[in-house]
């Protein structure tokens, strides 16, 4: 799976309608959000085995045990090339303190809340802690 030549426009188009969409297990959580971003950039859904398989936190953990590698990080290690989060490029997947999102240069977009507003939140790179990254490959 490789990024399409217009991956940046595809990613921006994917993010726009999600700005105010609230978190929902199994339909708009960090795993489904990041997988959707990768699908937007590459045309390939990297996590089809998880779609429609859970609707709660416990269900998510069960799905990771049944269809993944036990944890979200281990599942991503199996599907993508791990990279230090400090070297993540725009469009790469990043996890910080268990929150998974998409790198947007000096920030990360993830599903969350800011005050009473739910939807996509932006976390500045300098606030990433215990961060891990995974490369979404470029095509040649």
Automatic annotation (TrEMBL):
- Residue ranges constituting the DUF6950 domain according to the UniProt record: 3-136
Tell me one Pfam family matched here.
Answer: DUF6950
InterPro entries for the chain: DUF6950
Protein name, UniProt field: DUF6950 domain-containing protein
Domain of life of the organism in this record? Bacteria
């Amino acid at each position: 799976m490789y990024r399409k030549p217009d991956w940046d426009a595809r990613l921006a188009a994917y993010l726009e309608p999600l700005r105010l969409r609230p978190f929902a297990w199994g339909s708009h959580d960090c795993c489904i959000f990041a997988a959707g971003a990768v699908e937007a950039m590459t045309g390939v859904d990297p996590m089809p085995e998880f779609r429609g398989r859970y609707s709660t936190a416990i269900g998510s953990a069960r799905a990771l045990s049944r269809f993944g590698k036990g944890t979200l990080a281990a599942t991503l290690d199996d599907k993508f090339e791990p990279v230090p989060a400090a070297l993540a490029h725009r469009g790469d997947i990043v996890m910080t303190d268990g929150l998974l999102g998409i790198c947007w240069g000096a920030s990360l977009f993830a599903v969350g809340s800011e005050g009473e507003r739910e939807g996509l939140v932006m976390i500045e790179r300098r606030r990433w802690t215990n961060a891990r990254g995974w490369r979404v490959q470029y095509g040649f």
